[in-house]
Specification:
Blueprint (H helix, E strand, L loop, with lengths): L3 E4 L4 E4 L9 E6 L10 H19 L3 E6 L6 H10 L3 H18 L15 H13 L3 E3 L5 E3 L1 H6 L20 H4 L10 E6 L16 E3 L1 H13 L3 E7 L3 H14 L10 E7 L2 E3 L14 H6 L4 H8 L8 E3 L1 H25 L12 H11 L4 H20 L5 H18 L14 H15 L3 H13 L2 E6 L2 E6 L4
Helix pairs in contact: 1-14, 4-7, 7-8, 10-11, 11-13, 11-14, 12-13, 15-16
The structure holds one RNA strand.
Length: 480
RNA sequence: GGCGGAGUAGCCAAGUGGUAAGGCAGGGCUCUGCAAAAGCUCUAUGCGUCGGUUCGAUUCCGACCUCCGCCUCCA
């Protein structure tokens, strides 16, 4: 069937074809974080989505080049820098570092490139200059440079491709005020913002005087620098369709750097937002979670990852603590199944006949269909049940187990759970092992009272005993 | 006001013009000294409401209700 993805540009599900099919290389850019504070769980839904897109492209034999920017200069950041008396880089680096740690905790692969806006001023200024030269941008009286939507449209370009726009019907929001400056038209947006006293020491020099770049232009400049003037995939949250991505298209295509007939980006992917406990996430409702909030509650990154991947990316979904608890149970089942499989497979060789596992088939056809993760999970859990059944009935040979195990490892390269790896080799404290042995001796003596007493004692210390055909097996209790 | 998305079991969530995947929670059973783990099994005559089209709609159409997103630097 091949990978099919919904393209915001055409509002249709399309077969995904990379620009350079012969090389299998795929350029993908994801709008990264603004590092003014800790990222929240909603932000991470988008980043986990791009991670899965990247991983699935690899799974399908492509070679993705994943770029994600770090926005390290922006209004809120400047305000905080002023308030805290910090420097721009000192302030932003702490949140950038926290963000990258969170990404790792969530099992995300690091993007191949993570350009910072502040380190790409040359490219940004050069892009603005091109737009000025082509008369699509103008310097205003206040020293700022704006992009002219009207002139862009006069040049035959379409503004409003990702979202239908009707400027006459639009209700100007409050944010217009803060972004007024001295524009010719309300729809125009800033490419370069003239330095103001409030900016403090945050400024760069440019042909138009001291100032700093507008928000949208960094993504155009950096994406094209790393991926070329035309590339395959661009991702972001649905809120970025307008104005951010619309403006990116305008700037990038307005610069006229693409080859004739080629677009800036072929395929746009937008992830829906999530709700938390049935409500829009907000600090005042107390349902505003950062990853560290959830880790503090005893959940680990992969539970969060599982929940963030529980619904289709174009649907909003409800993120709940209950869901997180359920995720732990569900992941435990996968872990258990995979480690049984690994044990049975031992050193047997997988027969790789193009991987005939039902898991691979079900997973691939689900993901090919616009990344239908829910259906993909169904394939995973159907496979878990069937695999457990076969292991219970001892009807799985070592070689079959090895094949299924290999199929799992491939699928998990996409899911990114790392399931079944270490659950078997968990560190069991000596004291716990001793108690488990004592209990086993009591059981051998049919002293059930003593055995149960020891089991209760172990439970109080946070360990549960599973009596398996191979003897007792202490396991750490995960419940909160 | 404009544009767009969504309402499926206790909770989360797929899906389809022909009678409802999967996960969590809960009930019963098998196994077990008892458990745990695993497996089996039960739990929506029903898919926001009301109409319409159709042999047949949860799926198509219309109206209405509710929720959510964007409307100029929020993923």
């Amino acid at each position: 069937m091949g990978l099919h993805l919904f393209n915001t540009l055409t509002r249709r599900i399309e077969r995904f074809e990379p620009m350079a099919p012969e090389s299998r290389k795929v350029g993908m850019y994801c709008c990264g974080p603004t590092v003014h504070d800790y990222a929240h769980i909603g932000n991470f839904r988008t980043f986990v989505l791009s991670d899965v897109v990247r991983r699935y492209l690899s799974f399908r034999g492509y070679e993705p080049h994943h770029v994600m920017n770090i926005t390290d200069v922006e209004d809120k950041i400047i305000a905080r820098v002023g308030e805290t008396g910090s420097t721009l880089s000192a302030y932003t680096r702490q949140y950038e570092e926290a963000f990258l740690n969170d990404l790792k905790e969530l099992g995300c692969l690091m993007p191949h490139d993570m350009p910072r806006a502040t380190e790409h001023m040359e490219a940004i200024i050069a892009l603005i200059q091109q737009l000025v030269d082509r008369k699509l941008a103008y310097a205003a009286a206040d020293g700022s440079v704006y992009f002219s939507i009207a002139r862009y449209q006069e040049a035959g370009c379409c503004y409003g491709q990702l979202q239908k726009l009707d400027f006459d019907q639009m209700r100007p929001g409050q944010r217009v005020q803060s972004d007024e400056y001295a524009k010719d038209a309300i729809a125009d947006f800033a490419l370069w913002k003239a330095r103001t006293p409030a900016d403090g020491e945050v400024f760069w020099s440019s042909p138009w005087g001291e100032g700093r770049p507008g928000w949208h232009v960094e993504c155009s400049a950096m994406s094209m620098q790393y991926l070329g003037s035309s590339f395959d995939l661009h991702l972001g949250g649905e809120d970025l369709k307008f104005p951010h991505h619309e403006d990116e298209i305008a700037q990038s295509e307005g610069a006229g750097v693409q080859e004739p007939g080629k677009r800036f980006v072929r395929h746009w992917i937008h992830g829906a937002h999530l709700q938390v406990e049935g409500k829009k996430m907000s600090k005042s409702l107390g349902n505003y979670y950062t990853l560290r909030d959830l880790l503090d509650q005893g959940f680990d990154g992969r539970c969060v990852r599982f929940v963030l991947l529980s619904a289709h990316y174009r649907e909003s979904f409800n993120f709940t603590i209950d869901g997180l608890k359920g995720a732990r149970t569900a992941l435990g089942r996968i872990d258990e199944c995979v480690s049984r499989l690994a044990k049975l497979a031992a050193n047997a060789e997988a027969s790789d006949l193009e991987n005939q596992s039902e898991l691979t088939k079900g997973f691939t056809s689900a993901m090919d269909d616009d990344l239908n993760v829910s259906a993909a999970w169904a394939a995973v859990f159907d496979w878990v049940r069937e695999t457990n059944r076969q292991i219970d009935q001892a009807s799985l040979t070592a070689q079959q187990a090895a094949t299924e195990h290999q199929a799992w490892l491939a699928v998990d390269q996409v899911l990114g759970l790392g399931a079944g790896k270490d659950s078997e080799e968990e560190d069991i404290p000596q004291a716990i092992q001793t108690m488990a042995q004592q209990r086993q001796e009591a059981r051998n003596n049919r002293d059930w009272a003593e055995a149960d007493r020891l089991r209760d004692a172990l439970k109080e210390q946070g360990w549960r005993i599973e009596d398996t055909p191979d003897g007792p097996r202490p396991r750490r209790i995960q419940d909160i």
